[in-house]
Records
---
Amino acid sequence: MPPKVEKEHLNVVDIASSDDDGDAQTVARKQASSLGERQLRRNISSPEIPQSSGPITPPALPSGETLDSRSFWKAGNYVIGPTSKPALLEGALEHARVHPKFLHSNATSHKWAFGAIAELMDNAVDEIQHSATFIKVDKIDIKMDNSPGPALLFLDDGGGMDPVLLRKCMSLGYSSKKSNTTIGQYGNGFKTSTMRLGADVIVFSRSTRAGKATQSVGLLSYTFLRRTGQDDVIVPMIDFDISGHWAEPIIYSTHDDWSSNLKTILEWSPFSLKEDLLLQFDDIGPHGTKIIIYNLWLNDEGIYELAFDDDDEDIRLRDEALREATTKVLKKTVELQSHISYRLRYSLRAYASMLYLRKFNNFQIILRGKPVQQFNIADELQYPKVVTYKPQVAAGSKECSVETTIGFIKETPTNVSGFNVYHKNRLIRPFWKVKSDGSVIGNGVVGVLEADFIEPAHDKQDFERSSLFVRLENRLKQMVHEYWKGHCYLMGYQPPGFAAKQKKLLANQHNNSSNFPAGGKQDSRDEQPGLDVPDVVMPEGDLASTSVDQLCEENIQLFMRCEEKAQKEAELKQTIEELEKGLEDMRKKCAHLSSLLESKRKQKRNRLGLVTTIYT
């Protein structure tokens, strides 16, 4: 059993849900700071790790830790010891407390680790309105419990958080983001995302508000709360006033309380010295936020859930990557598995490239030292078509229209299909298949739309199942069928009902040929001069059901298909001619080389004969 530390007087964040932000300090616009850009100095190294060539070794667990306590889906299963009810101060009201287990259960809303990483990226993207220009996501090495291990680093140059905003960030349910353009809205993303990725997180933030420059440190440690037997969520935080020439502690109650918070942070964070702790602000600059998530979760095999050694420029989900690799061997569909619709399941670089619909003008996502190139799947569509959809919003709501770009994906296996649905520029559902499985209709059809009129779920990986969502789903199904009917022939597919029409036309031709008189003579009208009777006479009912315009349209489509086939055939012939020409050139070269070789051999034999004659 690890030794318990004495519960000390720390800053306790009241975990009370609140949507009232009337007294909240809104993030001020970025102001010039007297602090200059300091040279980057880290006490945390991030060396390049070569790709592993041997078996993966599970990390060593510290004393008192078990695999269950380090595996995310089992970390909430620990025994709760006896708790004591703290004495209330005179005149104070009793309030509901939140047990540390809630941090874990709250984080289980993220079934997918990349969804948690995306939440932290969203926070940086929301800071673009405060002149943020980048978000860096990287792997760094730290040392906890005398054993090294990886940690996740998130660093941005946004407006940062002052002491008030940092405390609200650590609270549940508070959000000051009420803009129509910001992605965050529930005030829960930071807690769920960080706790989903690792057991502990330390936050460094520097900000300037109303001419006062501050820097703050906050520690949200599930390990600390669990191992010290806490029955309430305690978040130690310290603040500094850096408006002057050096950092002055900001004291809210007593200096002992401030020192107690600092002591807890140093004991349970990767930084055991105050000097090391303050060095972490050096690469933030005059404003911004730095988040370090450590004690990353392990999978059921005791190996880190996130893989950093497969690609030095990427972060991958280990279990998903192994599953995809196995699928490649079994199904031998290398081309399909290499498409982004599959790679985004296990590659953070692939997922981040599609995470935001509109390309940034002055903002970059830098993953492990290399910027992520944004990718819009709509730019890769063949025969694109824009369809406008006007959802039936509730009475009194502002009417809106949604433009959906739909088309065939280029040079990709046909079973890649679906709609990429965004909400406020953020990808919520990638490659959402609305068509029925097993149907050829919609194969290779991909769409892109931004649906701001429906609300995303809390993990931002799906939408709430509202009536608006159901109507959108039905409209997208209809959209696929309409597009397929008018464009499938361009990809070599028969339009729906084409085979039935062909059979009907052949049957009509057979019936008309049987109406000729005996002896093979046609009607006497054929003998009348100047009267031209068509070879095939269609019944009146069939003429009524098949208009001239429809027949013309089908003929045009058939002609276009014939032209495309002829063009492909010409290209293939040209390719064959080029290959045959290259083959003939290679044969000539081989013959030339053979003659040269034979000549060399003859010269060698002649020289040997001459030498033999001389010696004789």
---
Amino acid sequence: MAGVMFMVLLCLSAGAMLGVQGEDPYLFFTWNVTYGTLSPLGVPQQVILINDQFPGPNINSTSNNNIVINVFNNIDEPFLLTWSGIQQRKNSWQDGVLGTNCPILPGTNFTYHFQVKDQIGSYIYYPTTGMHRAAGGFGGLRINSRLLIPVPYADPEDDYTVVLNDWYTKSHTALQKLLDSGRSLARPDGVLINGKNAMGDGKDEPLFTMKPEKTYKYRICNAGLKNTLNFRIQGHTMKLVEMEGSHVVQNVYESLDVHVGQCFSVLVTANQAPKDYYMMASTRFNKQVLTAKGIIRYTNGKGPASPEFPEAPVGWAWSLNQFRSFRWNLTASAARPNPQGSYHYGSINITRTIKLVNSASREGGKLRYALNGVSHVDPETPLKIAEYYGVADKLFKYDTMQDSPQANIAHAKIVSQPNVLNLTFRNFVEIIFENHEKSMQSYHLDGYSFFAVAVEPGTWTPEKRKHYNLLDAVSRTTVQVFPKSWAAILLTFDNAGMWNIRSEMWERAYLGQQLYASVLSPARSLRDEYNIPDNTLLCGLVKDLPKPEPYSV
């Protein structure tokens, strides 16, 4: 019958159902967020579970799927999840950060509904409220290619998700109190691989199994709080094939530095003697190295893993050189049939340059982190909702932060206020992240992928553009900045919405090292941005206001 939409529901694991409609397929999930007690490092502690799982359930989707997740908040604090790397085209309403969404209050639920439009790749989700990320609530989110689109490698025997974390035995509330009292986080107590650390006593269950001579895909993501983690597998090399949504030139690595918030996909072939092998994740750039282990078992295995461990590299020059080896695969197709390299980003004129310098202040006993001297504070009403309801002027001013910081910004007084940049729709923008501090930085941009065209030591000047990779820089969502160094990214702001640019070092984001890019379509048209969803949670100034006129086509 014309105009009738049919739906078939099939039960899936992790509280999920699959719906098949006349449009792109739907995946339905019901998630119950609770506290639980686990001992990831041998000490009982409170963790955040999703459907009693730690890490949370793995979302297994395909390009253009619609994902519907009903999140029930059964912890005692307001809670939000973000889907890091999912571009939420025209739909920042689903981004799950405090600038776009009111948090889900205890004892209530909220249903996220978003489409993984024109994307493939390996991503993570995690909480954005308070220091919840330090307690759990994170997990893997994969987007498989559609069957019609060729992938530049043979189908693996199986596809595994590896979530890495630095980990604290203190509760998230204790860590939050520490930060609120003006202190910073000390080094972590350990490292976890999929929520565990193998003891090496012969009683460890394997995290993964491999059949001899078969090739497996491992999606490796760092969902931690502050430490770069070096990942390696005893006796095996890794062929890098994908990074945060882009197929890459397939170089082979003995180990990979995974900076906070980043995800890599590698192929590993079971071509060694049949026994157990350790996968390992070690902290980098710290005097004391902390390492987690997990077991990979050959199905015909005959013996324990060797006690001889491959060492992690030392120093960040090695890591910088590894970044320089990453290249976009120009001939492969990602979510669409056309090759990735058909988009010639290097020939587009830059219309705006924004240089962001991070700094820290302990003035008045309060610890704050800032970008260009502004430390972001989330108002009670999310910025995006205030903008939509026409009350933004009561909460924040646009462009209070300069595009280029003053010369002595590292020592300048920090101002704490909402930090919102007004970005012109469809402009091609250059963003420089400059790090004058001795610590690593890692930045993520919601709503987009960008071209990471340079990461270099020293300070940035316009002459440095001569050294940009304008041919095959990887299109990705997260970029690291080494101590006393800078990074440059290029992108077109063609996705209308309110988008978070944040430090992935979570204590820094929590204490203000983030901002929002407001990208408004002058047409106020549904072609550019969706209307506010009917189920949007309202809070603060807009709670009792009448709904604005919706956008039209």
---
Amino acid sequence: METIIPEYEIIGNPKLPTGSEPEANKSMPNNNLLEPSTRSTNNRYSAPAPANKAQSFQPTIQPAYQPPPNYKIQGPIMKNEAPARIIPIAALNPYQGRWAIKARVTAKGDLRRYNNARGDGKVFSFDLLDSDGGEIRVTCFNAVVDRFYNVIEVGKVYLISKGSLKPAQKNFNHLKNEWEIFLESNSTVELCPDEDGSIPRQQFSFRPITEIESAENNSILDVIGIVISVNPSVPILRKNGMETQRRILNLKDASGKSVELTLWGDFCNKEGQKLQEMVDSGLFPVLAVKAGKVNDFNGKSIGTISSTQLFIDPDCPEAQGLRAWFESGGRNTASISISKELMPGGSKNEIRKTLTQIKDEGLGRSDKPDWVTAKATVVFIKTDNFCYTACPLMIGDRQCNKKVTQSGNKRWLCDRCNQEFEECDYRYLLQVQIQDHTGLTWVTAFQEAGEEILGCSAKEMYLLKYELQDDTRFGEIIRSRLFHQYLFRLKIKEELYGDEQRVKITVVKVDKVNYSAESRYLLDMVTKNFPNRKQF
């Protein structure tokens, strides 16, 4: 066992009890109390007298048992109100009754609301760092949220005590601590007004990009690199039916590798927009990523999560060394992407294929679908049945989206939900022909992909064609979207139509070609395929 705290202060004012030692005369047995019947004049039953005198020891007799006094209730019992001793975060454990920690808030999560069998609730968390480098997460629920959410500020130092420690939930907590603090109604959080320079403002554990290639999927790590490209922010519809923003950028470092970083939600409009403006103006900033999540689909990439923090041009030795490397020649050094390619806007690590390769390699004919990326041009769009009327009702946290029909009372009916409603949604079901330098093929584009291709909503196109019957305007929009080049993220799967097996190609995502990023992709391909090329 390792001693964590060698000394501890005395609690209260203890004193030795008086009269605890028995007196000698009380310890001696009274021999005269022996009954006469027990004495014998027969020497056979008497102990022989000792030949010489020896020292006699008087035995110590324990005092007779006395029952404890019966205390009467005369007032409240005094508590130890002395302030708890400040200990390192690393010394915290659930078996300590009184503790206090002094630490800096390095991250603060958003206020989240939830609903379960116990009812509605709210929760938020924040991360702490102390002067010894110890980190721990603190979580507050419901009424405790009301007390501390507006009190906690990132970068400030606090004195925290009277919380309970529970095992950390590693699915959501990436800190290197097996415990997590849960604040309660009697917990105290006191702001330390004087700045404590011994506590760092942030703690990093950077991994070179080349090591990310061998990192486990879903692992959380820190990475730092030069931002070499930033793509526009695009809206994405999550599986739960909620829309969010996504932005893709790429980092490179001195290891000779680059990696794709996906920004989600507010990161796109805050740090993401600032990074795009810097790169567009010719600057290549250093970006430090605290707590990024590894994705290993067809390579390795990094994505932001709720606890991720981004630091642009941070003041740390790693950033200074990276900047010096970049300015002294690293700017012109080719890097190999561990994300397979630098696809603008791609959420995962794509594999590039030409349209002819899709057919020649028999993609989509296995049990699982194939996911590829193709750079192609839209050459034709079918205008018959380009969209369908969809159910707008929510099933749990997702929209139904099943096809609805209009009943006799002009209300829309969903067979799945078995409900009628006044208004319905309109969702794209586009049949598009795309072409590249090797051939052409038909693809199906649903809602988000259809909006990206046509540049307007399905409801607008439906009203033009069927209600306003403005075929001229409708035709102008269709023709204006032809012969535009995109990067198509495709899902290829063989499906059964009647008695015939057909390969269906579905557009999962459409992105406009970013020619700067596309040029870097081509240069990377040259580096990979011709490593011994001559330098000109």
